[in-house]
């Protein structure tokens, strides 16, 4: 039994020797088609397997073909908090919001560089500074409303 890589780049199998011989005869597979024998980790052209050597013209061995590229490892999701950082800058506390934006911007660049721990740390810092901006804005807004309402009620004499 074999697994093969089709012309579309997808893996097919397990497939029997007879089925592959039929595909070779029909032109659906070629001696250059990459295959992996059951129990093996190596991918090599069908023409290099003894089972299919009789199908090849005498003395012709297909050139070695590199194995297909390994599946791209998906990178983990790390939230950047960029949108909340921008909103906290505009609506709450600009200095803390700007710091949050700086850390949020670092998340994707660190992920692209493969630095997952660095991206997670930047994400945590962005979240921390975002909440610091929100809380600071809330405290100052509350104090301002108290001051304005105090003056509006005529208690402005000290």
Features:
four-stranded antiparallel beta sheet; 158 residues; 5 helices; 4 strands; alpha+beta; rod-shaped
Walkthrough of the structure:
The structure is a single chain. The chain is an alpha+beta fold. It has helices spanning 17-26, 50-53, 82-91, 94-112, 116-152; strands at 2-5, 11-15, 34-37, 44-45. The protein has a 4-stranded antiparallel beta sheet with strand order 2-1-3-4. Helix 3 packs antiparallel against helix 4 (94-112) and helix 3 (82-91) packs parallel to helix 5. 51% of the residues lie in helices and 9% in strands.
Write the layout of secondary structure elements.
Elements (H helix, E strand, L loop, with lengths): L1 E4 L5 E5 L1 H10 L7 E4 L6 E2 L4 H4 L28 H10 L2 H19 L3 H37 L6
Antiparallel strand pairs: 1-2, 1-3, 3-4
Helix pairs in contact: 3-4, 3-5, 4-5
Short description:
Helices cover 51% and strands 9% of the residues.
